[in-house]
Design brief:
Blueprint: E1 3-8, E2 13-18, H1 23-32, H2 34-37, E3 41-44, H3 46-56, E4 60-62, H4 70-79, E5 85-89, H5 99-111, E6 116-117, H6 120-127, E7 136-141, H7 143-150
Parallel strand pairs: 2-3, 2-5, 3-4, 5-6
Antiparallel strand pairs: 1-7
Helix pairs in contact: 1-3, 4-5
Amino acid sequence: MKKTIRTMPAHKNIALVAHDHYKPELLRWVVENKTKLQSHFLYATGTTGNMLSKETGLAIKSLISGPMGGDQQLGALISEGKIDMMIFFWDPLNAVPHDPDVKALLRIASVWNIPVAANRATANFLFNSVLLEQEVDIEIPDYQAYLNDRI
């Protein structure tokens, strides 16, 4: 597929997601990075977003709960270019009933070439990058060209 460029803004749209056993770990990470997070637009799946907002006071746009379709809502936002990066503390040792949705979310994040942190170390690398506070050009699929080639 042909590629095009999308420019991420300096103030990123950041998705925050965590499986149940990793919600405390994500909360700890968010508290540690609260100052940086405050200058970005935050989204989260329902249970995680409500917990983070309540515990930190951060403004977070909460979608519905992941197992109820929140993972798919987030995937749609990624496809629309409305999410710039995702911090997803997922539990690699416990299967979840909505595992196909989780895989689809990670797949769509890869298709649309957004940075994804699946653990604390990667989240720290992303948040300590100079690119976090800058406009950044990324390559994404050129969907319009794809449609034009099909007509």
